[in-house]
Amino acid sequence: MESFFDLFGPTTTGAVSDSDTDTRNGNGEEDSTFGDLGGHGHLLQQHASCNSSPSEDADCSELILKGIDFNRGFLPPEPQLGNIEYKLKLINPSKQRFEHLVTQMKWRLREGNGEAIYEIGVSDSGHLHGLSDADMSVSLHTLNQMARKLDASTSVLRRKSLADHRSVVEVLVRKIPDDQHNIEVRVAVLGAADAGKSTLLGVLTQGEFDNGRGRARLNMFRHMHEIQTGRTSCISHETLGFDAQGSVINYKYNEMMTAEEISDRSTKLVTFMDLAGHRRYLKTTVQALSGYCPHHALIVISAGNISTMTREHLAIVHALDISFSIIVTKTDLAPPEPVLFELKNLLTSIGYRKIPYLISNEDDVLNANAHQSVEQIVPIFCVSNVTGAGLDLLIQYLYVLSPGISNAEKERLEQEAIEFQIDEIFRVAEVGLVAGGLLCKGVLTENSQVKVGPLQDGSFFSVVVQTIHRNKAPCRVVRAGQSASLSFNTNEPLPALRSGMVILPDYESNEIACGSLFFQAQVSVLFHATRIYKGFQTTVHIGSIRQTAIIEGIMGAGETGIGTNQTASVLFRFLRHPEYVRPGMRILFREGTSKGIGKVTQVFPLNKTHPVAT
């Protein structure tokens, strides 16, 4: 695949060593990350100007990913914000200096939601000074002491050798937040039918390669018809854990391993959502993406071709602003080059404007992860579920993948009133009705008095949260951004619960607990064959809500309607029953090949005289 390196900005095959490092400047300050592209607006032009030979493409890759050349001996300046810290050296600090360093690490961990990257041997200006083996050993020992002070763990991600027997080292520092058992990342897995999604998850979570006939995917299926057809029809959840040293914890860890034990033993937990790939179940797939709010998405593509369904999934993920990576499977059966060429043209097109990046070694993994959220990089992995080729790089990527939410944003959400979106309803023996979903805002505890709804008339009813489970294990509290399952205690029979309902705080002054049939949204039409007029029926997705709605009015459009790439303020009416909608919520609507996105600007609650607007 080296002949395609010039298409994807690959990393060096020989010029880059196994690790990267950070150094200090002449003022003794520390420098920042490997993953700063420096805001280059000419990255694609830089890439296009590079020669096509593998060695020259490798150097070009360094320019694309870092905006620097390691041979020149510097990195971008250390960022003031974020979870990346440059340290020239950490040799025998005074007690006062040590306490300052610990405080600094604590702040970086908060910025990274429990994860921080330290570059040892790099100055604040980004110059790669490097350290001798003896000084590096002492510096790493000091870093470990700092981490232990905060009950955090350290693991070396990579090391780069410099001249004069010096080196720089990149270290991951991880501390599980005090209010969590582990760091959780939700990952949605999408792709066309027969792309190998369930097989890939089976290999990752079971720890055994596929036999080429789909054996690995059997544990992913929930229904007999899925086993018989080999096609997923509903949402399936699986977990992959990592300990503090980055070792995989899955069902192969020991013979009696359960999902609860994987969660207990892991410092980081990746929760996969295996979504249906057949067009018949597209509404279920879109509902999962909208309701579960995944931190990241994996788009699985067979090495044979990019199907129409895959393009649909890419468009939906892009419209919902979910970061994604691409996994090219079945490379043992077909060469991936034709698909890689198609991906390059698709991702760099006007609709996406992404930078495809082919992952070929561990340096690529770390670089792509560092730049993905800032510079629109799309990592591409070529794997085989039969031979295991490329799976080690994918696992390394999942290990360093972060939730992508800042600590400040997390704290802001936790301080708001609770809002729990119900995605799934099921019954458990001796427990009764259980609601599964995502807590979007606030902090929910056991024995909390809450309201659930809306009912057919738009009202809510009061219940008490009896028990809470996360990752199949009981817990006492769930915080904003976490998924959970809840059981209820009520003196009266529970009315029929459904997906799309919400749980809100129960207090007399809570006037927001009311359903709405009408709402207004500012929308953009992504595609429609002709034009959209008043009376158009479409399926609307708002969080966990999935319901048919009718367009009752298009402001300013008159009789001309709106077409592709046009924006307008649209009045919607739910066709069946009221839903809880609030201003600011993201909306996605689709009908056949037509699709559009937008934000709710105004709602009209039932039994209320005044609308609620932004």
TrEMBL record:
<dbReference type="InterPro" id="IPR050055">
    <property type="entry name" value="EF-Tu_GTPase"/>
</dbReference>
<dbReference type="GO" id="GO:0003924">
    <property type="term" value="F:GTPase activity"/>
</dbReference>
<protein>
    <submittedName>
        <fullName>GTP binding protein</fullName>
    </submittedName>
</protein>
<dbReference type="Pfam" id="PF00009">
    <property type="entry name" value="GTP_EFTU"/>
</dbReference>
<dbReference type="InterPro" id="IPR009001">
    <property type="entry name" value="Transl_elong_EF1A/Init_IF2_C"/>
</dbReference>
<dbReference type="GO" id="GO:0003746">
    <property type="term" value="F:translation elongation factor activity"/>
</dbReference>
<keyword id="KW-0547">Nucleotide-binding</keyword>
<dbReference type="InterPro" id="IPR009000">
    <property type="entry name" value="Transl_B-barrel_sf"/>
</dbReference>
<dbReference type="InterPro" id="IPR035531">
    <property type="entry name" value="GTPBP1-like"/>
</dbReference>
<dbReference type="InterPro" id="IPR027417">
    <property type="entry name" value="P-loop_NTPase"/>
</dbReference>
<keyword id="KW-0342">GTP-binding</keyword>
<feature type="region of interest" description="Disordered">
    <location>
        <begin position="1"/>
        <end position="39"/>
    </location>
</feature>
<dbReference type="InterPro" id="IPR000795">
    <property type="entry name" value="T_Tr_GTP-bd_dom"/>
</dbReference>
<dbReference type="GO" id="GO:0005525">
    <property type="term" value="F:GTP binding"/>
</dbReference>
<dbReference type="GO" id="GO:0005737">
    <property type="term" value="C:cytoplasm"/>
</dbReference>
<feature type="domain" description="Tr-type G">
    <location>
        <begin position="182"/>
        <end position="408"/>
    </location>
</feature>
<comment type="similarity">
    <text>Belongs to the TRAFAC class translation factor GTPase superfamily. Classic translation factor GTPase family. EF-Tu/EF-1A subfamily.</text>
</comment>
